[in-house]
Amino acid sequence: MNSYKLFSTTLLAALWIFPTTAQLQTSDSSLVLSVGSFNIHYVSPRRPKLPWDERRDAVAEAVNELDADIIGFQEMETFIGRGERSENIQLQWVLEHSPQYSAAAVGDPALYPSTQPILYRSDLFEPLDQGFFFFSETPDEIYSRPWDPSFDSFASWVLFQNLETEQSFRVVNVHFDHSSKVNRHNSAQLVANRIAPWLSAREAVIVLGDFNALTWFKPISILKSVGLEVADTNGSTFHFNRGLNLFPAIDHVLYSGFEENGKTLRLNKQYQGVWPSDHYPISVVLELQETTQEFANLNLQVSEASPSN
Questions:
Q1: What is the model's pTM?
Q2: Rounded to whole angstroms, how far apart are CA atoms 254 and 211?
Q3: Would residue 202 be called left, alpha or beta, if left means φ above 0 and alpha means ψ between -120 and 50 degrees?
Q4: Which residue stretches of 217-289 are H helix?
Q5: 128-182 per-position pLDDT tens digit
Q6: I want to staple 58 with a disulfide (CB 3.0 to 4.6 A). Which of 129, 149, 257, 274 is the partner?
Q7: Angle at 160 between CA 157 and CA 166, to 5 degrees
Q8: CB contact at 8 A, 35 and 70
Q9: Does residue 197 sit in helix, strand or coil?
């Protein structure tokens, strides 16, 4: 074992066995945040279903009523086909009408798929890192197609830090294929594989989005098998743009390293007689578990204290 590994292992063992006084104390202020998910439905001039100009005011009202600290959006795109999306009128609209938010999981569409942004309260959080992976055999290839031929779909993710407490957590925003069971199952397994190192490192992780799966279906079972819990969705989330609640939720918030704090908010309502989307926006309040953050802080101390090569 080289000196770097020996030093890191010894320090980690010492800090784990003999925690400092600060680590033994109970935090006076736990990190509590509301996390939302909203499939906003894409805009396409070729498919006039749910015309944007007729529902954009309802979207703005719904986002502001949801009032989540962090919101993952799906289908936030002006759809022009496979490949780059150079325009995102929905993202621009929401940011203009909800100035409390900034957008993460966005970038140059040639380099970063920006149709599943994660909006956050910029007075509370800052993004430290972001990334994506596509649901395909080549997940790091942007816009790669899935196993069963279909539209490209992917997960976006962001590492956030709370500005006051400096506590950190990751948010993964997904949209699983609605038409292919193979794609849904493989997508769930890929997400499980990608978040496994974070969970092993005791990082707090939230996986949210449109799973196109009920809670007892295999995609959710795959994610639960790696340690994620499913927040209570409090009813149906897809309503055919008619308020028809025919089956339980397919939009979910899953988490590890948090505790659920209260019931999930589900905005199953119209605004001035207009549905914002064919999905209801949802949000859940989560409280960060102290043991998760203490372990994460411990890893950070080891990383900062370890000598460079």
A1: 0.85
A2: 11
A3: left
A4: 218-224
A5: 999 999 999 999 999 999 999 999 999 999 999 999 999 999 999 999 999 999 9
A6: 274
A7: 160
A8: yes
A9: helix
